[in-house]
Structure formats: C-alpha cells, structure tokens
Design a protein that fits this description.
kinase, transferase, Glu/AcGlu_kinase, binds the ligand N[C@@H](CCC(=O)OP(=O)(O)O)C(=O)O, alpha/beta, 13 strands, binds adenosine-5'-diphosphate, 385 residues, Archaeosine Trna-guanine Transglycosylase, Chain: A, domain 4, single chain, Glu_5kinase/COase_Synthase
C-alpha cells in the first residue's frame, strides 16, 4: 500500500497565513486589474479559509491600477501624482477583491497601513487587535500601504516589507509572496539565462541577498531583494516564507497540500518577542549614537544596558522614549532601543560616568542611557535587522 504523502511544507502546516501579491501580477504588467487572476486567488484563499486557515491578503496594485484608470502610460515621479494614482486605483483593487470573495461567501475588509502606524506602539497594538478581531470574525483582511498619506521619508515603499510586518504583527506561520517569477534564482532570470533556481534556503542567509541584488520589473518596486529581506523579517516571529509564481495554477492549494512549488525560505533564526520585533521593525529611526569598542562588547556580547560613558557621538534630534540605533566606530548597527535621554541631553552626558549625570543635567531620570530590556541586538554585523 502506498504511503500517503505527509505534508511538510510551511504552507501545509500553517494555521494562519499571509499571502502577498505584487503589482505586476495584479495588474497584468500595468494593463489594469487582472480580474481572472484575482478571481483565482480569491477562490483559493476562500478554499483555504473554509479549511479553517486564517488568511490575510496583502495586495499591491493601487498605483498601477490608478495609472491605467487615469490613462497614464508612464509611472510618474512626483509623489503627489503617485498618491493620486493610488487613491484612484485602490478603489478598483478593493472592488475587484470584494466581488471575487463574495462569490464564495467570504467577507473582506480593507486595511491601509503606514510605517508610522506600526512604529507607534499604541497604533501598532490597535492594528494588531483589529486584525485579530477580523480574523476571529472569519473576515479576510486585504492590506495595502496607505499611499495617500505617506511621505518619502516614512513610506515602506514595497509591499514585500509590509507583508513581513503583517506576518510579524499577527504571528502568522507562513508568508506566501506571489510574483511573476517561479521563485528565487541565483541571478535575475530576465537578465541571466543560466540563472539557477533555488528551491529551498534559510531566511536571513546573506548569500540569498547577494543573488537577489538586482531591481525588479518596471511595474513592481522591490524586486527579489525586498522579498528575501521580507523572509528574514518574517522569520523574526517564526514565519516561513515561500516565493512562488502567482500564475502557477492552484499555487496556494497545491502549497497547502504539501507540494513544493517556488522557493521556500525557512525560519530557523531564534524567534524574537513581540516587543523586540516592534523595536526591530522600526525602519526609520530618529537618530543614531556611536559607541566605543567597550560599549559595543558590553551590548552585543554581554547584553548589558548602555551607559553614557560608552557613547562617542550623537546624530539626529530625538526625545526621551524615541527609538535610536547604536552603531560601532565603522557605522555598523549593533542594536537599537528606546533611549532614556533626548539628543540634547545625550550630547551633554556622553563619555561621562552615570554618577555625573545629575551634576551635568540637574537631575538623573535613569542611570542607563538605554536599558537592555528596551533594546534589541543585531545578531551579526551583516544583519541589518
Ligand atoms: N535572483 C532573482 N530571482 C528572481 N527574480 C529576480 C532576481 N533578481 C531580480 N529579480 C527580478 O525581480 C522581479 C520581481 O520583483 P517585482 O517586479 O518587484 O515583483 P512584484 O511586483 O511581484 O513585487 C522579477 O521579475 C525579476 O526580474
Ligand atoms: N502600495 C503600492 C504597492 C507598492 C509596490 O509596488 O509593491 P510591489 O509591487 O509589491 O513591489 C500600490 O498598491 O501600488
């Protein structure tokens, strides 16, 4: 008797999944929403939902669809035009998904997030509880970046990162990134016909980042690099990532049956706590402080709190409670955390022992500049968190 196949893939085992679809797929290379493709993904997600899996969809395509609706042949450079296109296109995107999911009796919800929503602790917790509530109600949330309100400095820019942040937020066990390639290759297959397919890898392996180095298609923004980095980020909460072709027939259903399709990037890094992830997921920091070698050792090897005496330079303007990066003498980040003193005060107390803080500032709120409980450490020098 033939043994029944044991589903081993990340998607087969996951009870909570984030599926991300990129702009070039959703809009058929920018021609306008690919209604047939949307219908197929919706059917598959509805089917997995019916099997008891909690599903979240992160969909790009608002800008590309907006451009198609407005009759713009080329992607504009001006931020306000991109935002106008996103506002127009998001209507079409959500409408297409709502119609497609309704055919299977599945309710959907629109969630538009910005980097700031996830960096602010209260808004982050609110977003998380709304997503959990929707999942508990059996709704499929459809997430995109809130392009209309972001500025260049605070935009996530690509939805691969957003997909990973949502994976972290709801502690999904798997992130499926659907794109226009079969997965990750050793080089961009559009440019290198000898590129080798990578079936499996380890999330966070720097060799993968080197392979994915090139930029993406004309329609998408991130290319493969943002997908590989998203896998590293998803691994912070134990999420495995699969990068696969969204054009492959029944790709999600087959993955859920344990079939190996695409590139699976397994999470084997130690899982960080929700608070550590929140700290690590700050993509834009208020400032950075340079540490001397002794302080770098105290932080990274001994996991001690940071004292002002180990700081040799301060960049940026920040307040007490902001998230600030700690870098070594070469500018390589070794950790980050909530700082107990403003940039102005830090400049006055740097290189000084804690016993002198009260004398310099008139009072001392905390003996340490950053408490180790409020810090997250970067595992390797090459790890950009
Ligand atoms: N090593 C690689 N393996 C596969 N694709 C790569 C690689 N390096 C660059 N790419 C490019 O990345 C593109 C996918 O990224 P992108 O266009 O941003 O997609 P999406 O819109 O789905 O996010 C592919 O079409 C491919 O040309
Ligand atoms: N928020 C943007 C998505 C950004 C983007 O292009 O992402 P992607 O296609 O996934 O690289 C949009 O909806 O157009």
């Amino acid at each position: 008797m033939a043994a029944s196949p044991i589903p081993q893939s990340a998607v087969a085992q996951a009870k909570r999944l984030v599926v991300k679809v990129g702009s070039s797929l959703v809009t058929n290379e920018g021609k306008g929403i690919d209604v047939a493709a949307v219908a197929q993904w919706a059917e598959q997600i509805a089917s997995l939902h019916a099997q008891g899996k909690q599903m979240v969809l992160v969909s790009s395509g608002a800008i590309a669809e907006g451009m198609a609706r407005l009759g713009w042949p080329r992607r504009p450079n001006a931020m306000h035009e991109l935002q106008a296109a996103a506002a127009v296109g998001q209507m079409g995107l959500i409408q297409a998904y709502e119609v497609a999911f309704a055919k299977h009796g599945v309710r959907t919800a629109q969630i538009l997030l910005t980097h700031e929503d996830l960096a602010d602790r209260r808004r982050y917790l609110n977003a998380r509880s709304t997503l959990y509530t929707l999942l508990g109600l059996g709704v499929v949330p459809i997430v995109n970046e809130n392009d209309t309100v972001v500025t260049d400095e605070i935009r996530l820019g690509d939805n691969d990162t957003l997909g990973a942040l949502v994976t972290n937020l709801i502690e999904a066990e798997a992130l499926v990134i659907l794109t226009d390639q079969s997965g990750l290759y050793s080089a961009d297959p559009r440019k290198d016909p000898d590129a080798r397919f990578i079936a499996v890898g380890q999330a966070g392996d720097p060799a993968l980042e080197a392979m994915a180095g090139g930029s993406g298609s004309n329609i998408g923004t991130g290319g493969m690099l943002t997908k590989v980095l998203a896998a590293k980020r998803a691994a912070n909460s134990g999420g495995h990532t699969v990068i696969a072709s969204g054009r492959e027939a029944n790709v999600l259903l087959r993955l859920a049956q344990g079939e190996q399709i695409g590139t699976e990037l397994r999470a084997i890094l130690p899982v960080r706590s929700a608070r550590q992830r929140w700290l690590a997921n700050h993509l834009r920091l208020r400032g950075r402080i340079t540490l001397d070698d002794g302080a770098v050792r105290a932080l990274t090897r001994d996991h001690k709190s940071l004292l002002a005496i180990g700081v040799s330079a301060v960049e940026g303007e920040f307040e007490r409670g902001d998230v600030v990066a700690c870098v070594d003498q070469h500018g390589v980040e070794c950790g980050r955390g909530l700082i107990n003193y403003s940039s102005a005060d830090t400049r006055r107390i740097m290189r000084q022992p804690s016993s002198r803080i009260a004398g310099i500032l008139g009072s001392m709120s905390d003996p340490e500049l950053m408490h180790r409980d409020n810090m997250v450490f970067v595992r390797r020098a090459a790890d950009k968190a």
